[in-house]
């Protein structure tokens, strides 16, 4: 597993406002959207391209464009939806698949309640978007889901990651695939409830309001 902890003063600033408990949902959503754009710039650095000749008004230019098969972006519902638009703005030709996953807040195990993904992901570059990597159970299950469908190149974009979750993911995936985590920050630890410390609280609740 490869970890990219993106270091940029704009990310630091936006993350500071995002973490603030007094930041309301509207501002929170806006900041998530802006942060994913900054992370996506790093996360797509190795997106596959192919050469193409483009006729400019002056001459023919040797250019590159994103190669087929097109990448796929997979938001993990619910909170990952807050990162989808920022990601597809940078990768407008990407396909979008969906995974609905909810962790049981008592056992911290994951329930997958929805999936809408192509059956065959071989040869596809996959970009999972989910703001929080806490115990790592959700991201590990999501990654396994894609690997089971033939994907071998998976990049996860997270706003915050916990060291415990990164270790769990690395041990669970091993060398079965090329998995990269791109994050805005690696926080200190998980508390006894499985929340990232200092974190930002429950990302889904802060984006969309509290749903039981
Ligand atoms: O690393 P883990 O310990 O598995 O936790 C991380 C997961 O928790 C949050 O989702 P949640 O289960 O709260 O669902 P939600 O997006 O509907 O709020 C978050 O968006 C991740 O998907
Ligand atoms: O801190 C955490 C951990 C899991 N999910 C969240 O939304 N926040
Ligand atoms: Mg939640």
UniProtKB/TrEMBL annotation:
**A Pfam family in this protein?**
UPRTase
Q: Which cofactor does it need?
A: Mg(2+)
What biological function has been recorded for the protein in this entry? Catalyzes the conversion of uracil and 5-phospho-alpha-D-ribose 1-diphosphate (PRPP) to UMP and diphosphate.
Q: Name one GO molecular function term.
A: magnesium ion binding
Quote the cofactor binding remark.
Binds 1 Mg(2+) ion per subunit. The magnesium is bound as Mg-PRPP.
Question: Any idea what this protein is called?
Answer: Uracil phosphoribosyltransferase
GO cellular component terms listed in the entry, alphabetical order: cytoplasm
Residues recorded as binding uracil, renumbered to this chain, are 196, 201-203
Q: Ranges for the Phosphoribosyltransferase domain?
A: 7-209
Residues where 5-phospho-alpha-D-ribose 1-diphosphate binds: 78, 103, 130-138, 202
- Which UniProt keywords are listed? Allosteric enzyme, Glycosyltransferase, GTP-binding, Magnesium, Nucleotide-binding, Transferase
State the family named in the UniProt similarity comment for this chain. Answer: Belongs to the UPRTase family.
How activity is controlled: the entry says: Allosterically activated by GTP.
* A GO biological-process term: uracil salvage
- Tell me which domain of life the UniProt entry assigns to the organism this sequence originates from: Bacteria
């Amino acid at each position: 597993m490869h970890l990219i902890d993106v270091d940029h003063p704009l990310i630091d600033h936006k993350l500071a406002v995002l973490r603030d408990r007094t930041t309301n949902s509207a501002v929170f959503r806006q900041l998530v959207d802006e942060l994913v754009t900054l992370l996506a710039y790093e996360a797509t650095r190795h997106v596959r391209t192919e050469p193409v000749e483009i006729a400019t008004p002056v001459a023919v230019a040797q250019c590159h464009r994103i190669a087929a098969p097109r990448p796929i972006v997979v938001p993990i519902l619910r909170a990952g939806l807050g990162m989808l638009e920022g990601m597809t703005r940078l990768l407008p030709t990407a396909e979008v698949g969906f995974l609905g996953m909810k962790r049981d807040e008592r056992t911290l195990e994951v329930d997958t309640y929805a999936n809408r993904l192509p059956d065959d992901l071989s040869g596809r570059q996959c970009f999972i978007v989910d703001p929080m990597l806490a115990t790592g159970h959700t991201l590990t299950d999501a990654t396994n889901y894609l690997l089971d469908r033939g994907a071998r190149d998976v990049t996860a974009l997270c706003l915050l990651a916990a060291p415990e979750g990164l270790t769990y993911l690395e041990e669970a995936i091993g060398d079965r695939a090329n998995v990269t985590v791109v994050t805005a920050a690696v926080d200190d630890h998980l508390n006894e409830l499985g929340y990232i410390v200092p974190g930002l609280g429950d990302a889904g609740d802060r984006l969309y309001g509290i749903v039981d």
